[in-house]
Design goal:
By secondary structure, this protein is α+β, with helices and mostly antiparallel strands. Helix content is 16%, strand content 40%. It has 14 helices and 36 strands. The strands form 7 sheets. It has a 16-stranded antiparallel sheet. A hairpin with a 2-residue loop joins strand 14 and strand 15. It is globular.
């Protein structure tokens, strides 16, 4: 017997389900459908649920999905018993609806068997419309590309409220990160007349005005300057002068973390109890915000006693020296944490690095305030040293071209060695500097590497994830120079593999993977000028030790024949080869390399009277060069930190010292005088890179060069001098001179000349400061802009050298690194000082190819 209250509840349940869900459970026969033989139509009483045996289930209204897959979701199987209507039938409908594939779901009894105990069900569905095209309106093409990557919407996918809602949120968040916090998105749907049950969806986007922060006010900071608080926030900045290079956009994501940075600024000044009482954000203008912060500073505190517990590897006195905190110092918890746990900028030593460099990966230290007396605080440093950890597995992934052994030999983390934090950081730096991988990817902790410690067996696994980038270069160009057209073809394989040359499958297109360099270059305009060169470099000779091997050869000839019909009765040729070896040193540290090079050059002149010391003859240059180099930059193309230093000495045998001292060289012919060239050449170059704010980098560079002689009577060498000024491009210069760029002045204009117009630069110096900022940092291209101050000069004799007598310039420029071409640059410089009879260097544009150091 069904009581009225129970009947009312059941009817209310069924009514609620039909009201709030766009689905239906119709438990009646389909009046217009044909019945199978033996089946009869009977009415169904919704007030009296009936039990039936499932006779079968069929699905109507589907096009894209399979019927068997949908039936399996219902859980209905022939022979099972089911009560109609019931919670079971309602849950079937909800389950199908939850798949979000359908806009209408209806479970109905199609027919009953003749004895009324078996029901045949039909699941009537209306599939959601499919999207035949996604499009965007009101935004730039670059923004459309970004949104397509973020949304990952595909054609043919179903359109649901969830897809629309989530897509709109992604679009709004994308523009909020760019400062368009009031961006609006309208979703327009248009029925596709060509495709059945399909729609075209357009996201109509109105970015609105970009919202920037105009002013930030700090209230209640009586002892901490506004400037210090502003520096405490990383992303939230206003329009004051100190934030000139900072973005002023408002980002909700960064705002909360920047508020924590404000408290850190108070803590750094000793105000451990400082609190942010409240903050308010308001519009100053329709697209400009004002922000007010209200603080309570509290009392200023100082360190009293600092003690250590749990330390056995280092004595407390040693740890106190590393910590650098004395009694009476301001209670600066921010600096204390950096000196305990590590400073990302590596400006000071820290306790954690000292332990981890000795293998104590699981080391931890917790500062605990043990007593606060007045304005003084006692701190106890509680250390858990743990056991030393060793490197276990060293895994390298992503090297699709470069052989694994080439990457592995660059890393300092070896299986079985004690864990060393400095070795890990050095390995990352070496991989980023190889030139074969994306340096930004390799240096990114979230992508480039991972550290997986295992405290149970005191080991750690290191994975280096690399991303290959194309670094071979092909040059095919033509240009106008020397009053004629010059054609150039060249190719440089910077990841060559000579051991795979005879493997047929390796030629795709050339054998690669062993980090060797092979370069071939040919330049000519016909009879006037021809230059050919070849070079090979192996960074690890025999593949076992960091011993580099270099071999190069070249030939160049220049004539007076501008046109093919002229007779080249005047010409100047240079040919030679060089071979070098280099070793990485262990002392003073392993950033140093020592290299040796032996080279032979022959200069041959025939009636060559163009600005040269003699016109006919042959000169031989047999020289030995030793160079000490230290390079600790984090990467090659756009270094942010580190330094480069080079000291070298190039010398020839002192032939004149073996001759009769009474020889009068002025009476000798040029052919005899310069048959064997002698000199000693000293070079110093140094550059330091400092990361200022974000990716803004200051590069400071100094250079000095001196070409000396053994015998004053013999004089200076006619070769290996310096020509200073301009872009540093040699052009047709084959005289054996070293070309030194100095922007803001014409090429070679700062080089002294003798009475015959011959360049006689034997001493030079140069100083540069560049402010660099990247525009694009991608494997496909690296682009950065720069502003520079530069100064330098060139002298004929060391006695005339004056480091303060320099020619000054300033300007701006841009650098573009393309893997297939190399580094290209355009600079505009303005020279401020008189040169060559002019009042000043004036305005000059300079085009550069290749890295200069």
């Amino acid at each position: 017997m069904i009581y009225p209250r129970m009947l009312f509840r059941r009817l209310l349940s069924i009514f609620s389900l039909m009201l709030f869900l766009p689905v239906s459970v119709c438990l009646a026969q389909s009046g217009g459908s044909e019945q199978e033989p033996g089946k009869a139509e009977v009415p169904v009483n919704y007030g009296r649920p009936q039990k039936y045996i499932v006779g079968g289930v069929r699905v109507d209204g589907i096009k894209y999905l399979g019927a068997s897959q949908i039936i399996s979701l219902t859980g209905l199987q022939e022979g099972n018993e089911i009560t109609v209507p019931s919670d079971q039938t309602a849950s079937i409908v909800k389950r199908i609806w939850a798949q979000r594939f359908f806009s209408s779901v209806s479970l109905e009894i199609d027919s009953l068997s003749a004895n009324r105990d078996t029901a045949f069900f039909v699941l009537r569905l209306q599939e959601r419309p499919r999207v035949s095209r996604w499009s965007y309106r009101g935004i730039k093409n670059s923004e459309q590309t970004d949104l397509k990557e973020k949304l990952n919407l595909r054609r043919g996918g179903e359109l649901s409220d969830y897809v629309i809602r989530s897509s709109v949120n992604v679009i709004k968040n994308y523009y909020k990160e760019k400062g368009f916090i009031n961006a609006e998105v309208n979703v327009l749907q248009e029925r596709d007349t060509l495709v059945k049950n399909a729609v075209r969806v357009t996201f109509d986007i109105d970015r609105g005005q970009k919202i920037k922060i105009k002013t930030i006010r700090f209230i209640g900071n009586d002892h901490v300057a506004d400037k210090k608080l502003m520096k405490g926030m990383d992303k939230t900045r206003d329009a004051r002068l100190m934030n000139f290079f900072k973005s002023k956009k408002f980002s909700e994501k960064d705002y909360d973390s920047d508020k924590e940075g404000l408290i850190d600024a108070f803590n750094e000044a000793g105000y451990r109890d400082a609190r942010l009482l409240r903050d308010s954000i308001y519009y100053v203008k329709p697209n400009r915000l004002g922000i007010d912060f209200y603080f309570e500073e509290g009392q200023k505190y100082y360190f009293r006693n600092v003690t250590w517990t749990g330390n056995s590897v280092y004595a407390s006195e040693t740890l106190n020296q590393i910590l650098g905190i004395k009694k009476g110092d301001v209670y600066d918890v921010v600096t204390m944490e950096k000196r305990l746990q590590g400073d990302p900028k590596k400006q000071n030593m820290d306790v954690a690095s000292q332990y981890r460099d000795r293998g104590y990966l699981f080391f931890s230290v917790v500062p605990v305030e043990t007593a606060i007396v007045g304005d003084s605080v006692d701190v106890e440093m509680r250390i858990v040293e743990g056991k030393p950890a060793t490197f276990n597995r060293i895994i390298i992934t992503g090297n699709n071209v470069t052989n694994e052994r080439v990457v592995r030999r660059q890393v300092f983390t070896k299986p079985g060695y004690l864990y060393n934090q400095s070795y890990l950081e050095r390995s990352i730096r070496e991989i980023a500097s190889m030139g074969h991988f994306d340096p930004e990817y390799a240096s990114d902790p979230s992508r480039g590497f991972s550290v997986v410690p295992n405290q149970l067996n005191n080991t750690v696994d290191i994975t280096y994830n690399v991303s290959e980038k194309p670094n071979s270069q092909f040059e095919l160009s033509g240009g106008w120079g020397g009053n004629s057209f010059v054609g150039t073809v060249g190719i440089s394989f910077n990841n060559f593999s000579i051991r795979r040359v005879f493997k047929k499958k390796a030629w795709r297109p050339v054998p690669l993977g062993d980090a060797q360099q092979l370069s071939l270059r040919f330049q000519t305009n016909g009879t006037y000028y021809t230059n050919a060169s070849i070079s090979f470099s192996e960074p690890w000779l025999f593949g076992k030790k960091p011993t580099s091997f270099n071999l190069s050869g070249y030939y160049s000839v220049q004539t007076n024949s501008y046109y093919y019909y002229q007779n080249p009765d005047q010409w100047f040729s240079v040919y030679g080869f060089a071979m070098g070896l280099g070793n990485r040193l262990k002392w003073p540290d392993n950033y140093f390399t020592l290299s040796h090079q032996l080279s032979w050059q022959t200069y041959e002149l025939q009636n060559w009277g163009y600005n040269f010391l003699y016109s006919t003859g042959k000169s031989h240059n047999l020289s030995y060069t030793v160079a000490l180099n230290r390079n600790s930059t984090d990467q090659a193309i756009y270094p942010r930190q580190g330094s480069e230093f080079l000291m070298s000495l190039q010398l020839t045998p002192p032939y004149s010292l073996f001759r009769d001292r009474n020889i009068d060289y002025s009476q000798m012919s040029d052919r005899e005088h310069y048959r064997w060239i002698e000199y000693h050449k000293w070079t110093f170059k140094g550059a330091v890179y400092v990361k200022l704010i974000g990716d803004l980098v200051l590069m400071s560079r100094a250079q000095f060069g001196y070409l000396g002689y053994y015998n004053k009577k013999w004089g200076y060498s006619p070769f290996e001098g310096y020509q200073v000024g301009g872009d540093g491009m040699s052009g047709y210069n084959t005289y054996g001179a070293e070309i030194i760029a100095l922007r803001g002045y014409e090429n070679y204009s700062l080089t002294p000349q003798n009475a015959n117009g011959v360049y006689v630069g034997h001493v030079y110096d140069k100083f540069t400061m560049e402010l660099r900022y990247p525009v694009v940092l991608q494997p496909q291209s690296t682009i950065f802009v720069l502003a520079f101050l530069e100064g330098g000069n060139c002298w004929e004799d060391i006695a005339d050298f004056n480091p303060f007598s320099i020619k000054r310039s300033a300007g701006v420029g841009v650098r573009i690194m393309l893997p297939m071409i190399g580094l290209l640059g355009v600079d505009w410089g303005y020279g401020f000082d008189p040169v060559g009879g002019k009042n000043q260097g004036g305005s000059n544009f300079h085009f550069l190819i290749g890295q200069q150091f």
